[in-house]
Design goal:
The structure holds 2 protein chains of 2 kinds. By secondary structure, chain A is an alpha+beta fold. Chain A is built from 13 helices and 11 strands.
């Protein structure tokens, strides 16, 4: 049975339980997760940045109606009106990559639909009327594309998309025109970072026609040894060809990371790494950037045989070190200093116990 | 739905003018103020289009988005802007994309006319009020 819920508390708990797709494999894999994003617009409406309040509501209602007919493989679809959410809740969705940072700042009517069965979130009235995002843990871009395609086909049958036979799908920003598709992966390469080759390899990847961005995409900083690599081209190739190019770059980076790990495992720096890790695990206060950096070092230590832990258990700590996750769990707003101290406490009292070092 | 703005000033239009030139019809919309201006016939002449010599309109006739905003921010106002700011947009697209040849999927529901090469968009229009 499907249920379309509008901002109720139990729906919120279920969202928290069912949306840890992006960082699920953060502690175990080099390719942490894959994402396909498709941009679509409705014909007959101006693009979101040029819409009146009323037009935004009309467009939103049309999309919502189209969602309801979709046969999701999950039991429920969650639909959240962004303007009804608190800043913390919006931030939480952003930290889970369900919505973009720009989307959380919008004052126009906009909403997000989450399909846990398909691991899909759809932003309505972001830069384009529809931004379909399909996620998969690990390197599974093909699967993510299939699911995004299925929802896109359904919506395309219900809604009249802005499309030109010559140019493809028309988007608010011409950089996304054509397929409207952007594929991205989150890579975790602590081996390359510690051996000092991270930036060099990412620069090389940039030359292969992909974009290397921060952890939260465009304009964000990289955190720990996590990088987001995404496709640049949206037209001139079909959807599969666009993805293939990214897959090649990902394979090359994974190979470089394995080489770096091999070199590090034979180096004499392991003792120093172990000492530094123990010191960091005793920190009294940690910013989220420092926590991510510690996390990357922990994963590296496990790969080099210095530390042992259950990757699933440790992976869960990553989400709860993020500012909005932490505040939502505490049920109140916390100052940055308070959050840093809480992170330090979490590391000393809970994380350290799960690690054999 | 999109309110039709005046082709000259971008305000809400109240008058539709159809010009027939060499058997080709072109429709433009204007507000009351602009229709009252002295050189209105000349402006209609310029706006109603002259094939390849047509100037880029200052505002998109479908959504009123100013062309200067496209130049400044590189965003378009509505799907129709792609055809109304045609050449300028095409020039920009050629600069940012290595190829403009579209090979991707087509939506399941679309107006067949849109699929013709070079033909514009699927923006639904209301019948012209005369």
């Amino acid at each position: 049975m499907k249920r379309a819920a509008k901002n109720d508390a139990c729906c919120w708990e279920a969202i928290e339980r069912n949306t840890s797709w992006v960082l699920e494999r953060a502690a175990s894999a080099t390719v942490v997760s894959s994402r396909i994003r498709i941009a679509r617009n409705l014909s007959g409406f101006p693009f979101p940045h040029n819409m009146t309040f009323r037009q935004a509501i009309e467009a939103e209602n049309e999309v919502w109606r189209a969602f309801l007919g979709f046969r999701s493989s999950g039991r429920e679809i969650y639909m959240l009106e962004m303007n009804a959410l608190s800043e913390m809740e919006k931030g939480f969705l952003c930290e889970r990559h369900m919505v973009s940072r720009e989307f959380t700042r919008s004052s126009m009517p906009c909403s997000v639909a989450i399909f846990p069965g398909e691991k899909i979130s759809v932003m309505v009235n972001e830069e384009d009327h529809l931004r379909i995002q399909s996620f998969r843990p690990g390197e599974r871009l093909d699967e993510a594309l299939l699911d995004a395609d299925r929802l896109d086909d359904h919506l395309g049958g219900q809604l009249s998309y802005a499309f030109s036979g010559r140019l493809g799908f028309l988007t608010s920003c011409p950089t996304n025109i054509g397929t409207g598709l952007r594929a991205s992966v989150i890579l975790h390469v602590p081996g390359l970072d510690v051996s000092g080759r991270g930036k060099e390899v990412m620069k090389e990847a940039g030359k292969q026609g992909v974009l290397v961005r921060g952890f939260y995409g465009e304009g964000s900083r990289s955190m720990g040894s996590f990088y987001q690599v995404s496709t640049r081209e949206t037209t001139g190739k079909d959807e599969k060809e666009i993805i293939e190019n990214l897959q090649v770059v990902v394979n090359l980076t994974v190979r470089e990371e394995s080489k770096a790990l091999l070199l590090l495992s034979n180096s004499k720096e392991k003792t120093e790494m172990e000492r530094s890790l123990k010191r960091r695990l005793r920190s009294s206060s940690l910013s989220s950037y420092a926590f991510f950096s510690l996390f990357s070092r922990l994963v590296l230590a496990r790969k080099l045989g210095i530390a042992g832990f259950d990757t699933e258990k440790i992976g869960r700590f990553l989400h709860y070190a993020l500012p909005n996750h932490m505040q939502l769990k505490a049920g109140r707003k916390m100052s940055p200093e308070e959050r840093d101290e809480e992170r330090g406490r979490m590391v000393r009292e809970r994380l350290r116990r799960c690690i054999d070092v | 739905m999109i309110k039709q703005p005046c082709c000259l000033c971008g305000k809400e239009s109240e008058v539709s003018v159809v010009v027939v030139r060499n058997g080709r019809k072109s429709l433009s919309r204007f507000c009351r103020e602009c229709t009252g201006s002295d050189d209105f016939p000349g402006k209609v002449e310029r706006i109603s289009g002259r094939g390849s010599r047509r100037r880029t309109p200052e505002y998109c006739p479908a959504c009123g988005y100013p062309y200067r905003d496209f130049r400044e921010y590189r965003f378009l106002g509505c799907p129709e802007c792609y055809s109304h700011f045609g050449k300028e947009v095409d020039r920009y697209l050629k600069r940012i994309h290595s190829s403009l040849f579209y090979k991707g999927k087509t939506p399941s529901r679309t107006d067949p006319d849109n699929l013709k090469k070079g033909k514009g968009l699927s923006l639904s229009r209301k019948p012209v009020e005369k």
